[in-house]
Amino acid sequence: MHVVYDLHRFDLVDALHHRLPDRDGEWALFQSLSDRFAGQRVNLPYTHGSSRPDEAEGSGEP
Fold it and tell me: Domains in the chain: how many in total?
């Protein structure tokens, strides 16, 4: 499970419509997601659309 999580954690963030964190904010984001999955109320901003740089709006790519 650790390997699966390590390889696909950013796919999870994208699927949940949250912005991808920078290196410094990664731990805080995943701690907040874990708290939310455990049933706690946390403030996580929802961002509809892709958070991947290669799919950014206006890039001219499909």
Answer: 1
